[in-house]
Design brief:
Blueprint lengths: L3 E9 L5 E10 L4 E5 L6 H9 L6 E6 L2 E2 L5 H4 L1 E4 L11 H11 L4 H15 L14 H13 L5 E5 L7 H18 L2 E6 L2 H7 L2 E6 L2 E6 L1 H6 L4 H6 L6 E6 L4 E4 L2 E4 L14 E6 L5 E2 L5 E13 L4 E7 L2 E7 L10 E7 L3 E5 L8
Parallel strand pairs: 3-8, 3-9, 6-7, 7-8
Antiparallel strand pairs: 1-2, 1-4, 4-5, 9-10, 11-14, 12-13, 14-20, 15-19, 16-17, 16-19, 17-18
Length: 358
Amino acid sequence: MAYLTLKNINKIYPNGYHAVHNFNLEMERGEFIVFVGPSGCGKSTTLRMIAGLEDISNGEFLIDGKRANEQGPRERGVAMVFQSYALYPQMSVYDNIAFGLELQGADDDYIDEKVRNTARILGLTDYLDRLPRALSGGQRQRVAIGRALIRKVGIFLMDEPLSNLDAKQRVTMRSEITQIHRETGATTIYVTHDQTEAMTMADRIVVMKDGYVQQVGTPRELYFNPVNVFVAGFIGEPPMNFIRTRVQGGKIDIAGKSLDLNRLGKKLGTYEGKEIVFGFRPEAIRLGEQEKAFVLSASVELTEMLGDNTNVYITMGDIHSILKVDPHDTPEVDSDIVFSIPFESVYLFDGENEMVID
């Protein structure tokens, strides 16, 4: 039996706005699940329904097989870390972390042991006497995590906890949160709009759009086997390139170049005369001509040197795409290049419903 179960969960506000539609998910004990999607997609609302901070309009939420819809946050055994650190500014780090246990009336010796053990896990031992204003953003976020962590709950909820940190701090905190999860074994649900956070931290990812679940899977499944254009474009950086074109005689035309789709081994007879979306990831291409690949020509508009790779912005007629290449192979701006897309790296989507064509 799954530890957490969401069955046809819906959230409809009094004004009629339907924020979450028929959300279904089963989570195993100890899993790290990430809800990801653009702003307004319903991921934070779903998290708040799990936490008991929002009422569930329709559907059922189960914890260990028992209905929890009517339970409050304390009864559900959840701890939550918000986007804002929400620390008590007049309290020391020690007192901020200890606050939850003090409210529960725990013994002083027990509190001291738990606070110092939690501080050790989070690397805060040397800061226990400091006030929050004397800490960096990353340190304050660790205090907020520690305050939730010390309660030893079964469900750990995090709502965009890294969004207020700079890029370097986010990278550091990603690895720290992952390590904390491994050490505690708590079932963790993490909300973010950053697909990099989702890909690097999650056991499984839930991709949402407009209140609907688009796909649930491991990072590898979402990257290599997206079910639709939205997931394919949301997962991956830079995003997948998409070219709308029409099938004629089993072939498509891209900027005057005819590509025979029969070489992919897919049965596309039902798409004859219809529009499809041709997709390929920037990092999947190879410069020059390759065998078992579609070969295209392009003009270089712009290059972005990023150290370990270079983003190359190209045009093919009125089509704009991005390629990712080795920095040592960076072409000159305004030059003409030839590149290859291996057959196994080509994605085809239905032009109408934008679902993947198997």
